[in-house]
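User: I'm curious whether this sequence folds into something compact or stays loose and floppy. Could you predict its structure so I can see for myself?
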Amino acid sequence: MWRGLSLRSGLRRLGQPNNLFRHRFFSTELEPRESMEFDVVIVGAGPSGLSTAIKLRQLSAEKGQDLSVCVVEKGAEVGSHILSGNCFEPHALDELIPDWKQRDPPTMTSVTHDRVLFLTENGSFPLPVPPQMHNEGNYVISLSQLVRWMGNQAQELGVEIFPGFAASEVLYDDKGAVVGIATGDVGVAKDGSRKSTFARGIELRAKQTVFSEGCRGSLTKTLFKKFNLREKCEPQTYGLGIKEVWEVLPEKSKPGEVLHTVGWPLDKETYGGSFLYHAHGNKVYVGFVVGLDYPNPYLSPYQEFQRYKTHPKIREILEGGQCIQYGARSINEGGLQSIPKLTFPGGLLVGCTAGFLNVPKVKGTHTAMKSGIVAAEAIYESLSQNPSEGLEITQYATNLENSWVYDELKEVRNVRPSFHWGFWPGLIYAGLETIILKGRVPWTLNHKQPDHTATRPAANYKPIAYPKPDGKLTFDILSNLYRSGTNHDHDSPVHLTLKDTSVPANVNFKTFAAPESRFCPAKVYEYVTDDNGANPRLVINAQNCLHCKACDIKDPTQNINWVCPEGGGGPAYTEM
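Assistant: Here's the prediction. I'll summarize afterward.
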């Protein structure tokens, strides 16, 4: 069981008056925040962040110079915000914890068989399994459960983990170097007033701050701008992954079988596909990924997923079973050419906050973990030689470029951007790259534009008539949302902010037919009008938010800004 630790109890338990509380930082309007000091602060308890923490403490034990490490996590528990397919490649875990199989890990199902199908509306035909999608030696797992287990491993090594606290601000010194983060104030009402539970956030100050926020991290976005980290890379392109966990009838369970599909129900302008993994205990992990560079504003990724489940090949597996959990998460698909500069004074980026997903492999956990391992090694070496604040550890990027992570990503760098030519040209070129060329070409294809600019005016398309859910195989969004365990305090500031409140009605509604009401998989955004259909107004149901970040990515005007809500809010994944 996860042994959580509250940040404030941690302050009491760890507090050394002449160490942890020696600084108080005053605001002109608010009382000072308390401060804790560590050698390394890590933002986000996902695979990359926890790998960084574990490796740092392993090195401390091996080499004798002790580094204090803290991980802050916005989810109520470690793992509660973690969602992935997940067909897990244990390469990095073998490096990090060689005896992990003897440490009572969560249940893993060895992959027994791989299939790839091209779907038509009522039929299918098999495709060759690309080399990158051969899963011999891999496992079907719940990543949220694996991350929970990794949290325990980190704690046993002396890592301080504080779940339920959202990092809301990057701290800088007078030279502009990162010196830590601050957690958000809690107990603030929706109108901004203080509730009886109000408490100031806490400053977590460090010699090095590691940002492992996952895809489209809210603090990472600010670092991109401050340090111009994306100046020399391609735009990032994203996908929205939507997933359900099913318990199927025992006679339909095939533990270890892995199925991927392309084709129907997506049109030829839209990149995407599905996964269906058979796990232990009659569980099936089924999901759908839609590239967020799709042009049609009437398309709904959620509804495409529900329609996909009605295909005969998928229906026959799920029918008679029960959906037990639902969730969604955006993923980075840009690959090697979209990786930003990884270091800056006082900190660095690891995992999906930078973007190491191997798209043709349909995997990113192993590369995220390896980036954390490489980061920890560089941090430990640097701080052992010069334990100062604000250093830029450029050796991390150099070492990562010399690791198998870059070898993997370089080999497949042209696969995802080739689909900008269209589905069939992309599929043919991807086959050549993955089977024959293997990245050994002198060119690197480009991502033409950010995903939000790909959305075209609604006048170019007709509305899509999606079938009504039957409540057994297909579901309406709110029924599925209940299965995610998502919860936010209704009386708290809205974390989905608008830069200009006039834009939704004047631009998004009129030009793009209200796309936020369709690209969001949690029904956060809906428009209301007067009885005669006039005067459209956007309503934001922030309490529904799954923290998928699709709105922050796909909003055609980039008017929506996703920021962290009060810590502990959001989904409560246990099987994802």
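Summary: The radius of gyration is 23 Å. The first strand starts at residue 35 and ends at 43.
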